[in-house]
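Exercise 7b. C-alpha cells:
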C-alpha cells in the first residue's frame, strides 16, 4: 500500500510514495481510496526515484494522503 504525495491536476498525474521493499510495476493500475472507499484509479507510468513514482490519473480526483493499492 502507498499514499498520494502530490497531485498535479493540470498535468493529470500524481506522485505516489511507497514503503521500502515495494514498488508497483510500470503500467500497473492501482485503486485510490479516501477514508476507506474507492474514489478513483491511477496507472503507474514513472519515472521513479527512491520510494516515489509517478502515476497517471485514470479516474476520480485523488487527494494528498489518499491510499493507493491494487484492487
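Sequence design result:
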Amino acid at each position: 500500500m502507498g499514499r498520494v504525495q502530490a497531485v498535479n491536476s493540470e498535468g493529470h498525474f500524481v506522485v505516489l510514495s511507497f514503503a521500502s521493499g515495494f514498488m508497483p510495476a510500470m503500467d500497473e493500475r492501482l485503486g485510490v481510496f479516501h477514508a476507506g472507499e474507492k474514489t478513483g484509479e491511477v496507472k503507474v507510468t514513472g519515472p521513479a526515484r527512491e520510494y516515489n513514482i509517478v502515476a497517471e490519473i485514470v479516474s476520480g480526483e485523488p487527494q494528498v494522503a489518499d491510499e493507493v493499492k491494487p484492487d
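Instructor comment: The chain has a mean pLDDT of 96. Residues 2-69 form a domain with the Thrombin, subunit H fold (CATH 2.40.10.170).
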